[in-house]
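// run 5 | inverse folding | seed 20
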């Protein structure tokens, strides 16, 4: 039986971790070692937007030790990620260069979307997950700099929102030796409540959820004190909240002793417990589930999926589509036209598979763009494409990376606007991304022209490529004059990109 030894390195806001895994077909994924080292990069990053050389030296020393550990385990492969804490620092490029030169470790920075999705993938692999979201659930991931909340109702994503509330950020905001600890805790609660109440007013009106799925530092330790059976990690939300309330009244050393933690002066412990309780009480779930995973588990699970060592337990593409539909409805653009456009653009995409050379992922991005192509009209009819572009880039869509959102937003934009040259957009799109945008936008233009009246005048649509033509066959009982006129006007970009002429072949139905 083949066994792959894999290492996951993660550089966070306040600690650096190394997890060693064994991946095999029979035993799936098994943790064999876990090492954590405190390196509080957030202290410099949140205050100065740069990380000082002392912390860089400390980080490099830790990573060098990690490299020696990996060599001892003879790992077959590794991946090393840094969270958004490095992305937001002015000297991140120099830090990455120093790390690679001094340790040989290539560190990749992930944005908020990628970071949260890695953890989410691992949570979603648990058998309990689909059962919980099929009823109603909020997935809450708490980090050092921020937290993310994703709401599910009947298995459908309703929204994903990123709040600038994290344990390290809260701790740094309230470092003041002149204030009593009870006053600091009260101010933290007020700040958290303000942000959570805004979220509740915007996205939680008249809504109740059954499960709160919680991941973050100390969540497992709290749950272990309440229920030692980690395979059945759900407890009553009221019981969970009351236990946190009791812990909050204690000093840090007492809390650390209660949770069996080695560091009795951890500055992040109190902010984490306060944050958890405010989240639990604001979202008012019936039960709390702590899956007991961290970002390293997400990294190895993502690696195992990409290399086909494990089979996906959850349909992540469905999450993207449901999140896009919810966003479309929020901006009042969801309509039968959108359903028709998704179907038509997908039909053309599949017919053109050998011509465009794109895959399953690009197909999903095209479908997402079709769903969101009209959302900008909520802000401005005159500037709808640009407004849609801004809305998509500013919105969290579970399952899409920042790069994916740029591609989707650009497809929507160039569905209407003339395609800019690569040189004009190379600061936001790489070469591959630009080609994806050009191909998908040209397909979306043709599909959109087919239903320009938004009346879905046709049925039994088929598409096939023959020689230098894309022949779209339709049956209709209605006059298609407007659609034919718009089709001709929109076909130019399609011809430029694919060197293929789209043609409508119409069969009239007489009533």
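// decoded
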């Amino acid at each position: 039986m083949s066994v792959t030894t894999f290492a996951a390195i993660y550089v966070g806001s306040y600690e650096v971790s190394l997890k060693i895994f064994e991946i095999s077909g029979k035993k799936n994924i098994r943790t064999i070692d876990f090492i954590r080292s405190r390196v509080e990069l957030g202290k410099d990053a949140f205050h100065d937007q740069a990380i000082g050389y002392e912390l860089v030296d400390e980080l490099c020393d830790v990573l060098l030790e990690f490299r020696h550990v990996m060599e001892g385990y003879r790992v077959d492969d590794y991946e090393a990620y840094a969270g958004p804490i490095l992305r937001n620092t002015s000297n991140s490029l120099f830090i990455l260069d120093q790390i690679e030169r001094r340790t040989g470790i290539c560190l990749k920075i992930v944005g908020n979307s990628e970071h949260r999705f890695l953890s989410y993938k691992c949570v979603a692999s648990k058998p309990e997950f689909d059962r919980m979201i099929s009823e109603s659930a909020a997935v809450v991931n708490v980090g050092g700099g921020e937290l993310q909340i994703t709401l599910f109702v009947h298995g459908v994503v309703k929204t994903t929102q990123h709040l600038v509330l994290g344990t390290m950020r809260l701790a740094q905001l309230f470092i003041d030796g002149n204030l009593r600890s009870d006053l600091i805790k009260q101010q933290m609660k007020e700040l958290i409540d303000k942000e959570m109440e805004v979220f509740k007013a915007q996205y939680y009106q008249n809504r109740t959820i059954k499960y709160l799925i919680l991941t973050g530092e100390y969540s497992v330790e709290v749950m272990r004190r309440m229920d030692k059976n980690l395979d059945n990690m759900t407890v009553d939300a009221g019981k969970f909240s009351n236990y946190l309330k009791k812990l909050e009244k204690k000093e840090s050393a007492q809390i650390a002793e209660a949770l069996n933690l080695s560091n009795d002066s951890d500055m992040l412990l109190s902010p984490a417990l306060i944050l958890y309780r405010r989240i639990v009480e604001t979202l008012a779930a019936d039960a709390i589930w702590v899956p007991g995973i961290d970002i390293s588990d997400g990294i190895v699970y993502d690696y195992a999926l990409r290399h086909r060592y494990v089979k996906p337990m959850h349909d992540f593409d469905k999450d993207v589509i449901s999140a896009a539909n919810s966003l479309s409805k929020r901006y009042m653009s969801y309509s039968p036209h959108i359903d028709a456009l998704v179907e038509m653009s997908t039909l053309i995409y599949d017919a053109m598979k050998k011509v465009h050379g794109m895959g399953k992922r690009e197909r999903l991005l095209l479908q997402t763009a079709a769903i969101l192509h009209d959302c900008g009209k909520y802000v401005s009819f005159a500037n709808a494409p640009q407004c849609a572009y801004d809305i998509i880039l500013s919105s969290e869509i579970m399952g899409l990376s920042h790069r994916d959102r740029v591609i989707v937003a650009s497809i929507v934009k160039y569905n209407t606007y003339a395609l800019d040259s690569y040189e004009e957009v190379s600061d936001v799109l790489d070469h591959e991304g630009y080609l994806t945008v050009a191909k998908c936008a040209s397909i979306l233009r043709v599909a959109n022209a087919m239903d320009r009246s938004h009346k879905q005048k046709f049925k039994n649509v088929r598409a096939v490529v023959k020689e230098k033509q894309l022949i779209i066959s339709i049956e209709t009982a209605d006059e298609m004059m407007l659609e034919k006129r718009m089709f001709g006007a929109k076909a130019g970009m399609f011809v430029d990109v694919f060197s293929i002429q789209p043609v409508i072949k119409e069969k009239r139905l007489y009533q």
